[in-house]
Amino acid sequence: MTSSIVKQALLVPSTQCQTIRKILEDSKLTDITCNLKDFGDGKIAIPLDNGTSDIVDNLLAESSVICTCNTDSVNFDSLKTLPMSGYQIAQVKFRAKKPKPKTPYEELALSLTDLAHKYDIHMNDQLQGDIPHHWEKHGDLALLPPSCFCSDYWTKAGQELWSVVCKCLHCSRVARKDVISADGFRTPQVKLLHGDTGWVEHKDNRIRYTYDITKCMFSAGNVTEKLRIAKFDCSNETVVDLYAGIGYFTLPYLVHARARHLHACEWNPHAVEALKKNLQLNGVEDRCTVYQGDNRKICPTHVADRVNLGLIPSSEDGWPVACAALKPTGGILHVHYNVESKIKQTEVSDINNSFEGSRSSCENERDIEIKVPGDCVSKHIDRKNTWTEWAELTCETLHKLMCIAHSKTKWNISVLHIEHVKSYAPHVDHVVVDFKCCPI
């Protein structure tokens, strides 16, 4: 409930309210904590700061002063009392303004300044730069950028530092991230700064994911592909996921695409632990078999109607395994890859004409659907050509691998669809190509 307060106010005709209000505000004579009030009879009450009513009388006594917004230049002793014809001073009950809420950063910076003063820490530019302007929230855990709270001066505040951070960021645990480790598992370099566990939970498209943020990654950038998978109908299919992780694609296949059974291969033991928890969280553990280890050694063969190869920058090492995992009757391979392309800026009309021409020439051989976000179409037609060329060359490679895996000399490998997931880096695009493999 908003509180009320009785203050002295200047009553002015409503037609002159904004002019007079600006004069008084510029002269720092108003109480900015209160709202203006309609006093009735065509008058508006402007709240005055304490002890300023006499100054206001003098300031508005002569019309020439009304245009003067700086009281320093006004000789109040030479001015006469305000005429009562148009204005008057009165006691008015005002409704106090609600204080403008501070942003989380403002609240954090103010609280840390107080904390630094308490522990005799000089808040210099380095410490100001240590305060994060942004962070990620994972449930009750705040994940800070790498450059935050790196100065040794903060150690003077001990655990009280993290108590302040948790209060301002509305969390109970704090971690700081760094670069991804090159250990083969893509282990995130995340240090838990406050709290006793790094396990967090994330909900995405009605699927629950839990994982230890200090040991596993969550690939939020693959949302478009997860949504596409969710629209598949795999109710009569067996799926193999060669790089299952914590279940980024495994769970959409099971929960939304309703795969009859899924074989999930993953060699990171921390990811396997999270994957098993996630299967239970979503109630689909009875339709999934988890294999821990190198998929080149542990992946089942001749069982899959489709195989997901969700590894970037390249899933090429898994292509022989994926081909062997398909049933002898064939199936679909969803191949993730980072395709590098050279980009030339051209006019939109030239792009559209070029794209239509390239689509026509491709469709003479096989029906290829290429899907990218709308804002990419006008800029990056050369990328699309590169994706198509890469897919065509990969068909030849997959044909050889299918012949080896299934002891057949003739296979038809065709491109069903090319999906642009995201721009991974300048001139590099993460795409998924759907290859249809059929024996002849």
Which structural class best describes the helix and strand composition? alpha/beta
Distance between the termini: 77 Å
Total helical segments: 14
Q: Tell me the strand order in the biggest sheet.
A: 13-12-11-14-15-18-17-16
Query: Can you tell me the CATH class of the largest domain?
Result: Alpha Beta
Shape: elongated
Helix content: 25-40%
Q: Can you count the beta strands?
A: 18
Tally of individual domains? 3
Summary of the model, kept short:
It is built from 14 helices and 18 strands.
Would you kindly provide a written description of the structure presented here, covering whatever features stand out?
- The structure is a single chain.
- By secondary structure, the chain is α/β, with parallel strands linked by helices.
- The protein folds into three domains: 4-95, Alpha-Beta Plaits (2-Layer Sandwich); 104-197, 2-Layer Sandwich (GMP Synthetase, Chain A, domain 3); 220-342 and 381-439, Rossmann fold (3-Layer(aba) Sandwich), CATH 3.40.50.
- It has 14 helices and 18 strands.
- The protein has helices spanning 17-26, 53-59, 63-66, 104-118, 125-130, 160-169, 223-230, 250-255, 269-281, 295-298, 319-325, 348-363, 374-377, 381-406, and strands spanning 4-13, 37-40, 43-47, 88-95, 136-138, 141-144, 173-180, 188-194, 199-204, 207-212, 238-241, 261-266, 288-292, 306-309, 331-340, 369-371, 411-425, 428-439.
- Strands 13-12-11-14-15-18-17-16 form an eight-stranded mixed beta sheet, with helices on both faces. It has a four-stranded antiparallel beta sheet with strand order 2-3-1-4. Strands 5-6-7-8 form a four-stranded mixed beta sheet.
- Strand 12 (261-266), helix 9 and strand 13 (288-292) form a beta-alpha-beta unit.
- It starts with a strand and ends with a strand.
- The model is unreliable at 62-85, 344-367 and 374-379 (pLDDT under 50).
- One of its GO terms (molecular function) is tRNA methyltransferase activity.
- Its EC number is 2.5.1.114.
- It comes from Mytilus coruscus.
